[in-house]
Design goal:
About 0% of the residues lie in helices and about 45% in strands. The chain has about 100 residues and is mostly beta strands. It has a domain of about 70 residues. A four-stranded antiparallel sheet has the order 1-6-3-4, with no helix packed on it. The chain has a two-stranded antiparallel sheet with strand order 2-5. A hairpin with a 6-residue loop joins strand 3 and strand 4. The termini are far apart.
């Protein structure tokens, strides 16, 4: 039998660079891997995808779109998650260019 690890984090980044995803590396097969990402309702992504890669810089082995739940979050539960990188990435609406006067 394996261990159960619950990891909860809130990231409030005050810089102007928008985050484009969250991922975790798993060095062994995991019986159940659950990931949830919540977004600010004032600025929701235009698309959200789940993905799995063998290596951080490798191609996606699997990916699929996730729908926002409750208007502001996505949830991914992966039974028997394989070794590799498992994550959620998102796209934002294009930003209007800044204008210097």
């Amino acid at each position: 039998m394996g261990d159960t690890v619950v990891y909860d984090a809130q990231i409030d980044d005050a810089n102007s660079v928008l985050s484009e995803g969250y991922y975790r590396w798993s060095g062994q097969e995991t019986a159940l891997l659950v990931t949830e990402v919540s977004f600010d309702r004032a600025q929701l992504p235009t698309r959200v995808d789940a993905f799995h890669r063998a290596h951080a810089d490798g191609p996606d082995l699997r990916s699929h779109e996730l729908a926002l739940e409750h208007g502001d979050r996505v949830h991914l539960a992966q039974p028997e998650a394989a070794v590799g990188v498992h994550g959620i990435r998102w796209d934002w609406a294009p930003q209007a260019p800044c204008r210097a006067d």
